[in-house]
Amino acid sequence: MLYNHFVYITTNEYRTTLYIGVTNNIQKRLEQHQFDSLNAKKTFAGKYNCIYLVYYEGFESPKDAINREKELKKWRREKKNNLIRSFNPKMETLNHQVI
């Protein structure tokens, strides 16, 4: 099934900082994070170089995606890491899967 909206988690090279976001174009959003990381560093993801996609979920409804993003942001770090590892056990970079 193709989804129109995504909740995603990116991290930095050392997997020490997580960024959770929602988008309707995951490829473009990852490009924006990459650009900001290399240039302006005005956003959280850019400032902390969170350019490595490690988790994503697809949704048909933007409302469902936003609600899931809010839910994940409230979680403790350990729970977020467990979610990521259940989807991506080695926390490998998944950017190539969506581009």
From TrEMBL:
UniProt domain GIY-YIG: residue ranges: 3-82
SMART domains: GIYc
SUPFAM superfamilies on file: GIY-YIG endonuclease
Pfam families in the cross-refs: GIY-YIG
Sequence similarity: Belongs to the UPF0213 family.
PANTHER family linked: BSL5627 PROTEIN, UPF0213 PROTEIN YHBQ
Protein name, UniProt field: GIY-YIG nuclease family protein
